[in-house]
Design brief:
Length: 278
């Protein structure tokens, strides 16, 4: 069970009534969260922040609030994302089309804040490029291997058109080797060896491998990049990857690769192609 599952109630939450004339603000949403979302008695809800208010043309009359809940769990501060749909005094965290099965919670993600386009995450392209792409990825994810190298290539070949910002999101339960690989990638990028990030997408290694020395050896053999175990396990690297994980939570990312084009979620992951030469 994930940490979020422990903190919250079941995935499907019944629609609850608000006063029809109630102004929806932080206080109202906080009350809704406390009563209907966070059911674990060990979790204390300290506050809620509205990150963004959205609308969908397929949901006339519904206001969609993208929020960040500030929680305390076992004395640990946690910022957890939550989406709330509100209409005519009703509120729900899930809204599903009965006929199609379409869950609108899966159709929306927050707009990328400007702070996420920073030099530390700029992988390829110029930071003043006309268009900004942002990617959450895991080099061992098969879907990432199909999509992300093409995005990297496009940014490298069109630096004035595309700036690519890269965030690590290793899926450790599926391929634990990614934990060490992403640490190596982070160090390589910080050293200016950005092509190493790209090379990791062709690395041949057992996705279940957890022996750090074996992983480092495989990377050296296949890419020529040599690094020490102490370097990848430094506090700086740990904090950087924790910050990437926190950014993924802030952006409500649930899988990889997740791609944003000019601040907006690109569900099909191919929006960048219109910016490159045929």
């Amino acid at each position: 069970m994930s940490l979020m599952s422990k903190l919250l109630t079941s995935a499907l939450i019944a629609t609850v009534a608000l006063s029809a004339n109630t102004e929806v603000n932080n206080k109202v949403l906080l009350n809704y969260i406390e009563r209907n979302v966070v059911k674990n008695p060990q979790v204390e809800v300290k506050g809620i922040k509205i990150l963004e208010k959205r609308e969908l043309k397929d949901l006339p009359g519904w206001d969609i609030y993208l929020t960040s809940m500030h929680l305390v769990y076992h004395k640990k501060n946690i910022d957890a994302p939550e989406m709330i749909f509100v209409k005519d005094g009703l509120a729900t965290s899930h809204l599903v089309n009965i006929k199609t099965g379409r869950d609108y919670r899966n159709e929306i993600k927050p707009t990328v804040p400007a702070s996420m386009y920073n030099d530390a995450h700029l992988l390829f392209g110029n930071k003043d490029a006309k268009h900004k792409l942002l990617v959450f990825s895991d080099p061992e994810c098969p879907f990432c291997r199909d999509v992300v190298p093409g995005i990297m290539k496009a940014a490298k070949e069109n630096p004035q058109q595309i700036a690519l910002y890269y965030y690590h999101l290793p899926l450790l339960r599926i391929h634990p080797v990614s934990g060490t690989l992403t640490r190596i990638m982070h160090v390589a990028q910080s050293e200016g060896k950005k092509d190493m990030v790209q090379k990791m997408y062709t690395l041949k290694i057992n996705p279940r491998e957890t022996d750090t020395k074996k992983i480092i050896a495989a990377v050296k053999k296949q890419t020529g990049y040599d690094i020490t175990e102490d370097k990848i396990k430094s506090d700086e690297v740990t904090k950087a990857l924790e910050a990437d994980a926190k950014a993924a939570g802030r952006m409500m990312v649930t899988g990889t690769p997740t791609v944003y084009v000019d601040g907006k979620w690109d569900k099909m992951r191919n929006g960048y192609k219109k910016f490159i030469k045929n």
